[in-house]
Design brief:
Elements: E1 2-6, H1 24-36, E2 40-45, H2 65-71, H3 74-81, E3 84-85, E4 96-99, H4 113-124, E5 129-132, E6 155-156, H5 161-166, H6 177-183, E7 187-188, E8 198-201, E9 204-207, H7 213-224
Parallel strand pairs: 1-2, 1-4, 2-3, 4-5, 5-9, 6-7
Antiparallel strand pairs: 8-9
Length: 228
């Protein structure tokens, strides 16, 4: 199995003066799910090189067994530090793609043409695509073969308006992801904001929040292995 992981390259949290990037747990948990299953993993980002890390995801209370394992894994750290440029990636070389979250994707992956084309390529070639937390932002401009939004009529989830309100960031983010996906015709649902909640609609897999990272990754593996 060859799995592509796409990380954000965006570091600024709007005009708040704060920084963002990718959320460590949302990368680490899927990474080790895939690694332990024997997958070959490639990491890419719009700009390539070291993607920015959301510093809040490095706080002590945000750590998990997977993040601690990541910090001790020089191979994983090096892979992230030398992510490939998205413009060099071809879906033909991979079996599936996973997008970790963090707020960064709201700004870059939502409109990145290379990412949009990549997702459409994976989906149109019957390959599973998975997103967690804020990374479903990468879907807002993705089209189906008929020209309509890919998410139209699809069951999915993402970081909810309620969760964004709890962070007091509703006025900082460029758009509320839940609203944007619903506007594009998605059938949105959510669980308890503190617990894992994942949805699958065919090849499309989405997780609501960082607690959903491992579950979304496992669902991607199961789909890849044809169990679903």
């Amino acid at each position: 199995m060859k799995i592509l992981i796409v990380l954000t390259s965006h570091a600024d949290l709007g005009t708040s003066g704060e920084k963002t990037g990718f959320w460590v747990e949302e990368f680490a948990a899927p990474y080790f799910v895939f690694l332990d299953a024997g997958a070959t993993i490639t990491i890419a980002s719009p700009k390539g090189g070291q993607p920015p890390v959301d510093q809040k995801s490095e706080a002590e209370d945000a750590q998990t067994a997977d993040t601690k394992r990541f910090y001790k894994d020089p191979i994983a750290i090096d892979l992230v530090a030398h992510s490939l440029k998205l413009s060099t990636i071809n879906q033909k070389d991979y079996d599936a793609v996973f997008y970790p979250g963090g707020h960064g994707p709201l700004w870059d992956l939502a409109t990145d043409e290379n990412s949009i084309n990549l997702i459409e390529g994976f989906y149109n070639h019957q390959k599973p695509i998975a997103f967690v937390c804020h990374s479903p932002a990468a879907l807002v401009n993705v089209k189906a073969k008929n020209g309509e939004p890919l998410v139209k009529g699809k069951q999915l989830t993402c970081f909810s308006n309620t969760e964004e309100e709890a962070l007091k960031l509703t006025k900082v983010v460029p758009f509320l992801l839940e609203d944007e996906l619903i506007k594009n015709g998605a059938h949105y649902s959510k669980g308890n904001g503190l617990e894992s909640y994942v949805k699958q609609d065919g090849l499309l897999i989405t997780g609501q929040n960082q607690a959903s990272s491992a579950a979304a990754a496992k669902l991607l593996l199961e789909t890849l292995k044809g169990k679903k």
